[in-house]
Write a structure and sequence with these properties.
The structure holds 2 protein chains of 2 kinds.
Chain A (H helix, E strand, L loop, with lengths): L3 E2 L4 E5 L4 E7 L6 E7 L6 E7 L4 E4 L2 E6 L4 E6 L8 E8 L5 E3 L3 E6 L1
Parallel strand pairs in A: 2-11
Antiparallel strand pairs in A: 1-3, 3-8, 4-5, 4-9, 6-7, 7-8, 9-10, 9-11
Chain B lengths: L3 E4 L2 E4 L5 E7 L5 E8 L3 E8 L6 E2 L7 E3 L5 E6 L8 E8 L9 E2 L3 E5 L1
Parallel strand pairs in B: 2-11
Antiparallel strand pairs in B: 1-3, 3-8, 4-5, 4-9, 5-6, 7-8, 9-10, 9-11
The chains are: A mainly beta, B mainly beta.
Amino acid sequence: DQQVKQNSPSLSVQEGRISILNCDYTNSMFDYFLWYKKYPAEGPTFLISISSIKDKNEDGRFTVFLNKSAKHLSLHIVPSQPGDSAVYFCAASSPNYKLSFGAGTTVTVRA
Amino acid sequence: NAGVTQTPKFRVLKTGQSMTLLCAQDMNHEYMYWYRQDPGMGLRLIHYSVGEGTTAKGEVPDGYNVSRLKKQNFLLGLESAAPSQTSVYFCASSYLQPQNTEAFFGQGTRLTVV
């Protein structure tokens, strides 16, 4: 039973516009949430994280929003660039050191 | 900087054969993990280790064994490979618990079991 769900397998956005990726989770014990980015034939790389005690974290073009009551988080990329085309994984961490990942969303940025 | 290195990068096995995947990290990280990635399933944790000499089961441990005899190495073994173990395997490591520090991933091992 997947505890972290990314219900949109793909997203296409025009260069310069906003990309919004969504993630839902079921385990209320998760205390940190992370986003990883993955290019083909490479391992995932860390993008941004947020603690469960916060509702927003921003790093340059990337902002993550957390809504604990809805068990929902989102990643906003503004403005979207061609190099942002990749698979994005939402991940959640529980106090027993485990990272649980969603199925991923493939983002394509169109020129 | 090598970071996390996985060996081999590709492998084809026959059903019933055994093999060991090697993960090596040069960042002196305490925590190491093995994940498998399957289409539509994301990354699922197989086994993990919180320090040299320790291992623990993740979400999908059946059919796999691991060892962490040295801090820098984390080995994943398949004793009798099955077609259901066809997947891309990723090793990762982190200095602290992965929630407040990033985990570094290797490039992956693509395993096909025929």
